[in-house]
């Protein structure tokens, strides 16, 4: 008697296909969230995406390309530090950066209150990041830095991510101004909530 799919263990091939789909969908959600809801209002985010946005706002460089350039030193270190950490995040970084820059050419024709845009952008980015984390990949960057520092210093990785993201947000205060900074805090809170919800595992997922 055949075992129903939902009750049997996934094969390695099935898991790999699900992981590829998660990276693609997660990257698309990031691209849409950043370009359709954050960038039009100069809203910020934490982590590598936040650094890419700050460089974009200040110098006009593409967000995705900025993310890759910032990550090069970290990936060089990760290559020597731990190959698994390198490979688990490299594809997530490249595909998400590509999607973010791909959607940057699209024009937004709707006008939303900034707080609504901050929340929707946070939801989409949180879902995208959480989906990739469920399949052991990420956009790398500051999360990778936090993982490395956590193993070196024995400080909780969550605390390190909070500190790093806090420094990124505070550094952007002068660029975007106090009003946008406060709405950006709403975005970051929403990203954190929806990332946590998405990462929660049920059953074999």
Task: Give the key terms.
205 residues, 0% strand, single chain, 9 helices, mainly alpha
Task: Describe the structure in your own words.
- This protein is mostly helical and 205 residues long.
- Helix content is 75%, strand content 0%.
- The chain is built from 9 helices and no strands.
- The chain has helices at residues 12-38, 47-59, 63-81, 83-102, 114-134, 142-153, 157-171, 173-176, 178-199.
- Helix 1 (12-38) packs across helix 4 and helix 1 runs antiparallel to helix 5.
- The longest helix is centred in the N-terminal third of the chain and has 27 residues, at 12-38.
- The radius of gyration is 17 Å and the shape is globular.
- The two termini are 24 Å apart.
Mean pLDDT: 85
Tally of contiguous helical segments: 9
Q: Globular, elongated, flat, extended or rod-shaped: what is the shape?
A: globular
Beginning-to-end CA distance, first to last residue: 24 Å
- How much beta, percentage-wise? under 5%
Radius of gyration: 17 Å
Quickly give the structural class.
mainly alpha
Secondary-structure element order, N to C: HHHHHHHHH
Q: Please outline the major beta sheet.
A: none
State the helicity in percent bands: over 70%
Low-confidence stretches: none
Q: How many extended strands?
A: 0
What's the SSE blueprint?
Elements: H1 12-38, H2 47-59, H3 63-81, H4 83-102, H5 114-134, H6 142-153, H7 157-171, H8 173-176, H9 178-199
């Amino acid at each position: 008697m055949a075992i129903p799919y939902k009750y049997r263990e996934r094969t390695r091939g099935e898991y790999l296909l699900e992981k590829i789909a998660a990276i693609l969908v997660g990257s698309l959600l990031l691209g849409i969230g950043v370009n359709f809801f954050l960038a039009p209002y100069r809203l910020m985010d934490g982590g590598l995406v936040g650094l890419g946005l700050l460089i974009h706002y200040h110098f006009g460089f593409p967000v995705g390309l900025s993310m890759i350039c910032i990550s090069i030193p970290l990936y060089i270190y990760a290559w020597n530090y731990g190959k698994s950490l390198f490979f688990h995040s490299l594809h997530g970084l490249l595909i998400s950066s590509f999607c973010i820059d791909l959607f940057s050419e699209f024009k937004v024709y709707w006008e939303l209150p900034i707080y609504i845009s901050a929340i929707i952008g946070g939801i989409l980015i949180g879902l995208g990041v959480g989906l990739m984390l469920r399949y052991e990949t990420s956009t790398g960057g500051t999360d990778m830095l936090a993982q490395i520092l956590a193993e070196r210093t024995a400080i909780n990785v969550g605390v390190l991510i909070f500190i790093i993201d806090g420094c990124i947000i505070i550094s952007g205060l002068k660029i975007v101004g106090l009003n946008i900074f406060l709405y950006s805090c709403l975005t970051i809170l929403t990203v954190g909530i929806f990332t946590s919800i998405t990462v929660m595992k049920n059953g074999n997922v």
